[in-house]
Amino acid sequence: MVETRIRFGILGCANIARKLSRAMLLSPNTAISAIGSRSLEKAITFASENHFPKSTKVYGSYIAVLDDPDVDAVYVPLPTSLHVRWAVLAAEKKKHVLLEKPVALNVGELDTILAACESSGVQFMDATMWMHHPRTTKMKEVLCDEQRFGQLKSVHSMLTFLGDDDFLKNDIRVNPNLDSLGALGDLGWYCIRAILWAHNYELPNTVTAIRDPGYNESGVILSCGASLNWKTDGKVATFYCSFLSNLCMDIIVLGTKGNIRVHDFVIPFNEKVGSFYAVDNSKWAERALGCAPEPTEFKIATDLPQEALMVQEFGCLVAGIRNGEAKPENKWPVVSRKTQLVIDAVVASIENGFVPIEVVY
């Protein structure tokens, strides 16, 4: 018996939807059933350019996708300011929700989305793709090896890219009416998620924004950073995100006995192989002319790109719910909410003069 694929509807024709629609076509358990845009012509063009199957329904509105009985789940790549409206409506119409990050402008909005999903019994997941790469699993194995890594002490994450003049003037991510969190929401989300991931999602006690973030003329953040502190064991983390610096996607995780470094954690340089470096028991060489041992490079191969693995996992969760075999997986709402709480704390620290902000779940 051939397993029925989970049928996706896509709300909007954002650039990121090109990548995710490709993932839906590559994933063995998902299909694209419908695409909707505010413009029917735009939706038709998008479906054609991205090689959607001829069976895909094309609509000139988002609501038509949600009303389609042949849609099991929706992918929402709309601007963040529209998330609460369309994600809630999708959940109310019993559609499972794969939501682009940042998932909301604040945790209050996210709680509204999550409450709607819980009430309707639908799966929620944010589209943080790197978490689904097998490299991420291998890195966690190294982190959990106390003989090799020891106790976690510090994490540092960075995500930056240099936006051109057109991006900095016209992209939705610098528009206060569409994505008012700017670089913090778009890039800082990944950095914060990496920090929480390394800490097994233990929230920091306090978050303190670094002074002098960069803004555009509309007051949207173009670059910022923060420090996160845990009372237990004196653990600390920092992150920096920016639309104003050369491309960088680094995580450094430091332990008492070893460390991990990854240089492309958000989007692997090669979608078929994800690499990272690990070293343990490092010591200075004689006369401090070097150090030993040298880091080991791990190369983790994958048959599917990480975004296809993400939609495949989401499809499996939806299938389990649809078949009555499982309830919605609660991990993903919890992880999203914790990430959003830290983003909110960074915003609060900036608005209150860069003071430490307590984080409470």
From TrEMBL:
PANTHER family from the UniProt entry: GFO_IDH_MOCA-LIKE OXIDOREDUCTASE N-TERMINAL DOMAIN-CONTAINING PROTEIN (PTHR46368:SF19), PTHR46368
UniProt lineage: Eukaryota, Viridiplantae, Streptophyta, Embryophyta, Tracheophyta
Positions of the Gfo/Idh/MocA-like oxidoreductase N-terminal domain: 6-125
UniProt name for this protein: Gfo/Idh/MocA-like oxidoreductase N-terminal domain-containing protein
A GO term for molecular function: nucleotide binding
Family: Belongs to the Gfo/Idh/MocA family.
Signal sequence residues: none
Pfam family, one: GFO_IDH_MocA
InterPro entries given in the database record: Gfo/Idh/MocA-like_OxRdtase_N, GFO_IDH_MocA-like_dom, NAD(P)-bd_dom_sf
SUPFAM superfamilies: Glyceraldehyde-3-phosphate dehydrogenase-like, C-terminal domain (SSF55347), NAD(P)-binding Rossmann-fold domains (SSF51735)
Domain of life: Eukaryota
GFO/IDH/MocA-like oxidoreductase domain mapped to chain residues: 143-261
Taxonomic source organism: Ambrosia artemisiifolia
